[in-house]
Request: fold
Amino acid sequence: MQKLWNHYHSPTTIEEAAALLQQYAGNARIIGGGTDLLVERRDHQPQEAFIDISCIPEMTAITQQGDHAIIGGGVTHAKIVKSEVVAARATCLVESCGVVGGPQVRNVATLGGNVVHALPAGDGTTSLVALNAEAEIFYNGTRQWVPILDMYKGAGVSLIDPTRDILLNFRIKLAAKHEASAFKRIMRPQGVALPVLGCAVWVRLTEDGSRYDAARICLAPIGATPGRAAEVEAALLSQPADEDTLETAVQVALETLHPRTSKYRATGEYRQEMIAVLLRRTLPLAVHRARTGEAIPEGVGQ
Reply:
């Protein structure tokens, strides 16, 4: 069996992990679940050292601080799915993490690894964007918070260098009254195949539940990096939360969003048709949750 590393460290504090990165001077890499990284390294020379963050308590916990959830960069998808506060008040993230791979993958793969690999199709990423999440990073020797979209510099190109920096935590504002979210995706039927397209939405309704007060929408993958569907969001603002507005939003999406053809996913034409399908599934679901306060994740683990 091919050797993948020469040294393996399991620090128990962020300070210890940072010191190890400095010690190896670019010849070590942070590893969480390793579901992407170990596959990526199979055709390379052994990594000098891996620094495993799965033993750092701060990075493997989900905590609530006031109206925010703090999710460690080393938290697995399975742990997110089991979080009651995330399920109730950041529902789309549970729905997206609950369909990543199979149970074995979700038990070890981390949300932080999903983001650090900077692939625009990440299910968890799609929901983080709709939730307007922030990422806390150990970057250039200091801890700092950055908007989630700042983590992406290109397809597979992250803001942080995993041989020198660490993605520590995510911070998400939890849904308040009249706010809710939802996630759906279209994928090929071969189990763990890549998604054709995913959609996460977050909405806030007016106090009487009749109109959109605010909305955030992320459909991915569309471009080289994830992004918000700003024109669609604008079409919803202050409009009645009804079928007519939904159809207007769908038309705006079809006019402004143009996914490319991908040999691994589907043709651009098919993927554009799926934009309409996903918006018609997610927006009404988020509106229903915002009106009723009922947020039971759908499709998790299927």
